[in-house]
């Protein structure tokens, strides 16, 4: 079964590329979607900076 090995590897590669392209094309959309929630949560969760490591 040599076709069982390349299939998942190629799938992962395609998925990774798709995710990268989506992030690159929707960079502004991602920033707008990620910016509002953290700002509102940060004010409420000011004592938990570890909750937002990416912020």
TrEMBL record:
UniProt name for this protein: ATP synthase complex subunit 8
GO CC, alphabetical: mitochondrial membrane; proton-transporting ATP synthase complex
Subcellular location per the Swiss-Prot or TrEMBL entry: Mitochondrion membrane
Annotated GO MF terms: proton transmembrane transporter activity
Family affiliation: Belongs to the ATPase protein 8 family.
Topology within the bilayer: Single-pass membrane protein
Keywords: ATP synthesis, CF(0), Hydrogen ion transport, Ion transport, Membrane, Mitochondrion, Transmembrane, Transmembrane helix, Transport
Main location: mitochondrion
Chain residue ranges for the region called Disordered: 34-55
Keyword hit for DNA-binding: no
Species per Swiss-Prot/TrEMBL record: Liolaemus darwinii
Domain of life: Eukaryota
Transmembrane region(s): 6-25
GO biological process: proton motive force-driven ATP synthesis
Pfam families: ATP-synt_8
